[in-house]
């Protein structure tokens, strides 16, 4: 058994999934959460749970011989990565999806030799890797589009939605202006715009709208047009816009109404499309309906995270010192992640990567 120590900060739906998978892989896992809700941790002798505010710990004293995995949401997650990165020689995986991206940490001083790998979920994350493969094969792109969402398996009434990760982060997606590429230039458009209907196999008609999920690929992958759209059941975002514009939107109430229900069937779906200037295209679809080991969003996000961690443990020199987005990972890591996801029953169709 490989008893490499992994510090996991945050034990929500995704965080607890990642921790369990790492423990099953034979690693020693320390979990830090102010209110861990997952009792299944007790079944693992190699998981230790630390209950409390993570900022109440002497994070500097944790050394640099372990891997640090930040799965706290938003601004709190960003602040944690800044704290963790002060110590030299650390390997840090950041899944916080904060508006302030980890590459801005370079404005401050990070520890000598410290390495940060950020946005290692399904989107951003796997989406970045697939676009990087398209760029490698096709060259500069005319169009790059990502459509992704986690939703109930069918319309369930009310909002027809439940949040598969922090509801606060979902709301931030809806309110944060969307940075996209138009005519080769990064521009900012209002979130929730460019709404359009799409067909999702097995689900019928759904709706897609702009959100701010491109992040690093806007600068790392040349494209004339690049967009990321979130996918929901028709009517969901119309209601959000209507209540927002009438000032009747109660965000605290919304967090309760969007609470995730593990008893409700759900699925995660993503399409990544790339087209070059000659009309050649590459198109991948990722789809999952959850499993006994976790929800579809926990699986599709968490397996990417776990794959990155495992690859990094096996090859500590995988990345140079500094801040790294997922599209900079070696291709063999992307291939191993896709293989692992398929082994867990996640459906991934599209051009083979080998």
Structural description of this entry:
- The chain has two domains: 5-120 and 299-349, 3-Layer(aba) Sandwich (Rossmann fold); 126-294, Dihydrodipicolinate Reductase, domain 2 (2-Layer Sandwich).
- The protein is 28% helix and 27% strand.
- It has nine helices and 16 strands.
- The chain has helices at residues 13-24, 74-84, 126-138, 167-175, 217-220, 236-245, 251-257, 296-314, 331-343; strands at residues 5-9, 28-33, 47-51, 67-70, 91-94, 115-118, 141-152, 178-182, 185-189, 196-200, 204-210, 223-232, 266-276, 281-288, 322-324, 347-349.
- Strand 8 and strand 9 form a beta hairpin.
- It is globular, with a radius of gyration of 19 Å.
- The two termini are 29 Å apart.
- The model has no long low-confidence stretch (mean pLDDT 94).
Could you tell me the radius of gyration in angstroms?
A: 19 Å
CATH architecture of the largest domain: 2-Layer Sandwich
Which fold name fills CATH's third level, the topology of the largest domain?
Answer: Dihydrodipicolinate Reductase, domain 2
When the domains are counted, the total is: 2
* Fraction of residues in H or I helices: 25-40%
Overall pLDDT, averaged? 94
Strand percent estimate: 25-35%
**CATH superfamily name of the largest domain?**
Dihydrodipicolinate Reductase, domain 2
Order of helices and strands: EHEEEHEEHEHEEEEHEHHEEHEHE
Overall structural class, as computed from helix and strand content, comes to alpha/beta
Distance between the termini: 29 Å
Number of helices: 9
CATH class of the largest domain equals Alpha Beta
- Sheet having the most strands: 9 strands, mixed
Secondary structure: number of strands = 16
Low-confidence stretches: none
Shape, principal axes of CA atoms: globular
């Amino acid at each position: 058994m490989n008893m490499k120590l992994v510090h996991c900060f945050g034990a929500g739906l995704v965080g607890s999934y990642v921790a369990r998978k790492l423990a099953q892989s034979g690693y020693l896992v320390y979990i830090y959460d102010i209110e861990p809700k997952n009792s299944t941790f007790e079944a693992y002798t190699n998981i230790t749970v630390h209950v409390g505010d993570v900022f109440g710990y002497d994070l500097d004293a944790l050394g640099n011989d372990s891997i640090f995995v930040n799965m706290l949401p938003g601004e709190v997650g960003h602040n944690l990565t800044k704290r963790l990165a002060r110590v030299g020689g650390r390997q840090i995986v950041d899944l916080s999806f904060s508006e302030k991206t980890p590459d801005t940490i370079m404005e401050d001083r990070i520890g000598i030799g410290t390495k940060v790998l950020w946005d290692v979920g399904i989107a951003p994350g796997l989406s970045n890797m697939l676009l990087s493969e398209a760029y490698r094969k096709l060259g500069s792109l005319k169009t790059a589009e990502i459509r992704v969402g986690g939703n109930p398996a069918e319309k369930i009434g009310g909002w027809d939605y439940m949040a598969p990760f922090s509801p606060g982060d979902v709301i931030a997606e809806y309110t944060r202006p969307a940075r996209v590429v138009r005519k080769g230039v990064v521009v900012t458009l209002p979130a929730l715009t460019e709404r359009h209907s799409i067909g999702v196999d097995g689900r019928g008609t759904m709706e897609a709208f702009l959100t701010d999920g491109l992040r690093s690929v806007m600068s790392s992958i040349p494209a004339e047009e690049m967009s990321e759209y979130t996918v929901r059941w028709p009517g969901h975002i119309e209601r959000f816009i209507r209540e927002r514009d009438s000032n009747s939107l109660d965000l605290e109430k919304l967090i309760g109404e969007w609470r995730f229900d593990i008893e409700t069937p759900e699925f995660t779906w993503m399409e990544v499309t790339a087209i070059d200037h000659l009309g050649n295209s590459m198109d991948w679809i990722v789809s999952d309906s959850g499993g006994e080991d976790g929800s579809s969003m926990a699986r599709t996000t968490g397996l990417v995270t776990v794959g990155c961690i495992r690859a990094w443990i096996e090859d500590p020199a995988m990345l140079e010192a500094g801040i790294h987005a997922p599209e900079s990972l070696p291709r063999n890591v992307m291939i191993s992640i896709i293989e692992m996801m398929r082994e867990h029953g996640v459906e991934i169709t599209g051009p083979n990567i080998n």
